[in-house]
Amino acid sequence: MTTVPGPAPLAGSAARPFDLLRVPILGGFLRRRWARAALQAPVFLVAVLMAVHALFGPQLAPKNFGSLVTWVHFRGLVVLALLCAGNLFCMACPFMFLRDLARRWAVPRWNWPRPLRNKLPAVILFAGVLFAYEWLSLWADPWATGLLIVGYFAAALLVDLFFRKASFCKYVCPIGQFNFLGSTLSPFEISVRDANVCGSCRTKDCITGRRGAATAQEPAGRVVQRGCELGLFQPRKVGNLDCTFCLDCVHACPHDNVGLHARLPGEELVHEGPRSGAGDLARRTDWTLLIVVFVFGAVLNAFAMISPVYALERAFSRLSGVENRGAVLGVLFGAALVAEPAVLLGGAAWCTRRAAAAGDSLLAIINRFSRSLVPMGFGVWLAHYGFHFFTGALTVVPVTQYAVHEATGAYLLGLPRWSLGGLPPAFVYPLELSFMVLGFGGSLLVGWRVARTFAPSRAFRAYIPWASVAALLFAAACWTMSQPMDMRVTFLAR
C-alpha cells in the first residue's frame, strides 16, 4: 500500500486557501494512489449494469435501469457535482478504469495526430450527441441507450490503446468537454501550494512522472507514478479547463506541493494570456466553438422538450414540404447552433469593436468575450437537468426493485413502488429559476471583467452588447422553463 505523505505545515498557511487534501479523513483517502481506482470501480460496475439492463432488460424506458439512470440521474448528478465540488465524474470515470486495466497488457505507441490536437472532434461529437438524442429519441429507446454506453466504452478503449497520454479525454470525449466548461464554475481546483517550491523543482514530476531507481534495463528509472496525461504543468496551470481531477500530479509531486484548493467560481474565465494545456483562449477558436455548443445547446436541449417545439416542427414541414423528421431537426439545430450564434455573437463583436474603437478582428473579440456566456449556459443546464433529477430522484428505487426481481425471480428488495417520484414540479421551478439567475449574474460579472481588460477607458460601451446577449439567453431560458416539459423516461407528468 503506497500513500502520498500527509501535507506538512507551510509558512503562512493560515492565509492560504482551504485545501480538501488537508481534511483528515477525506484528504487522507484522496492522497492514496489507489483512491481513484476505488472511486472508479463502483461507477464502472453501475455502468456495466446500466448497459446490460438497457440491452437485455424491458424495452419500456421508465422500467429500464439503463435508460432511467442515464437520462435522469446521471445527468443531474453530474451538473450538481460540478456546482458543488468540481469534475467528480471524470475523477471517477468508468471509461478510464477499463482503459487503465487494458493498458497493463497493451502500451499505446502513437501520439495523437497534430492536426486533431484541438477541440473540433469533441465539438462535432458534442453536437452530434445532442442531435441524436432528439432524432433517435434515445430517452425512449433503452436498446439504443445501451449501444451508446457500450460504444462510449469502446471508443475510449480504442483511442487510448493506440494513442499515448489521455487523448480521448483531451480531444474526443464530449462528456469530458462538458465537464471542463462546467467546472469553470466549480468552487475547487487543483493547484500548487507554494509557487516558490515549484520554482526550485528540477524534476518536474507533476508533468513528466515520478521515476524509481535507475537499472541496467531502464537507465532513466521506471515510471512509478505517471504525471499529468493532459499536459497541464502545475506552475502554469489556470483553473479547471482540461483537468479531470485525476490527482496524478498530487501523487507524482515529490514535494507534496499540489492541493485541491477552494477558489472563486468563474475566476478563471477572466484570465488573460496563456495557460498550461489550453494556451491563450483569446487565440483558440476551437474553444469558442465548444463554448457556443455548450451555451446555445443548453437552451436548444431544453427547448426540444417542450410542447411549442412540436408545433414549430409541424409548421416548418407544412411550409417547406419536408416530412423527414431528421431533416427538420437538422434545420432546427443549424439555426440554433450555427445561425443564431453567428448573428448574436457576430453582432455583439461588431458593436463592441465600434464602441471601443478597437482594431481587433471580430473573431478575436468573440474569442475573448464568449467566455462570459459560460455561466449562463451552465445555469440553463443546471435548471434543465436539475428539474428532471429532482422531480424523478426516487424513480430509481422501483426500477432497481424490478430489475432485481427480473434477475432473480424473487422480490428481494420488495415489490416495486412505481408511485415513487420526487419533488413536485411547482417546488422545483423556483430552483430552476434560481440556477438561471445565478448563471445570468455570473455572465454579467465575467463580461464586465473581460470588458475592463479589453477596453479600460471604454469598458461600459464594450460590455453592453455582451450583457445584452446574456439577457436574451436568460429571457429565452426563462420562457422555455416556464412551458410544460416532457417527463421523459419516467411515468411522471407535468
- Summed over residues and divided by their number, the pLDDT gives a mean of 92
Q: How many β-strand runs?
A: 4
- Termini separation: 52 Å
Please count the helical segments: 20
Structural description of this entry:
This protein is mainly alpha-helical. The chain has 20 helices and 4 strands. Strands 1-4 form a two-stranded antiparallel sheet. The radius of gyration is 24 Å and the shape is globular. Residues 1-14 have low confidence and may be disordered.
Give the topology, please.
Layout: H1 24-30, H2 35-56, H3 65-84, H4 88-91, H5 94-102, H6 120-135, H7 142-162, H8 167-172, H9 174-182, E1 188-192, H10 195-200, H11 205-208, E2 210-211, E3 223-225, H12 248-252, E4 258-262, H13 285-303, H14 307-320, H15 325-356, H16 362-369, H17 374-391, H18 396-408, H19 425-454, H20 459-481
Antiparallel strand pairs: 1-4, 2-3
Helix pairs in contact: 2-3, 2-5, 2-7, 3-17, 3-18, 5-7, 6-9, 6-13, 6-15, 13-15, 13-17, 13-20, 15-16, 15-20, 17-19, 17-20, 19-20
Short summary of the structure?
With 494 residues, this protein is mainly alpha-helical. 58% of the residues lie in helices and 3% in strands.
